[in-house]
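pasting for ref
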Amino acid sequence: MPFHVAEKNHIFIPFQNDVRPLSNSVPEDVGKADQLKDEGNNHMKEENYAAAVDCYTQAIELDPNNAVYYCNRAAAQSKLSHYTDAIKDCEKAIAIDSKYSKAYGRMGLALTAMNKFEEAVTSYQKALDLDPENDSYKSNLKIAEQKLRETGTGLTFDMASLINNPAFITMAASLMQNPQVQQLMSGMMTNAIGGPAAGVGGLTDLSSLIQAGQQFAQQIQQQNPELIEQLRNHIRSRSFSSSTDEHS
């Protein structure tokens, strides 16, 4: 069952409590930058993310000391799957305003999309420290923590996605012709149904079953690593919707 972040899709309501650091820009530039930011927010609503990046970039050029512009651009970059750029923008926003919780939250989303779950957990924890009642941060933190646990087994995709993937079915059929794989699967089935080794190597010996499963996963990885990466990217895109929280 795919995971979903607890954020409403395509709803952009201006926050009134965002901290905007004092700028050295002249008033005309500040006003124009804020107008460009609003244009960028409209492009985000219309899912025109490249145009949004362009507007936020122009706003930054006019008023480079405003953390909101960097944070909003980070959201647009994530929508374009430019996660490294999104993280850099979040870091710039945090450098301007170290208590900007939204920047930590959006950094967590980008880190999660890059499978950097440990760093994502840290980022979400910081966001929650600054905004303890934010349900989105709580939900995304739990998801990142679960993904971090899953990476310990090397299984970061679900079986439903595997069996619905034609390439996987073809690959699995090929693997089943391998005598070693046949022997491995035979051993797994014997243990699972409590065959001759029941009570010793059957269901009571979970470590053996886990080891067998890991061996099978390794066989898949060796046979078709490109498919595994494709599946991971597919599940990741389904599990984590990009940041859709309100824009400033």
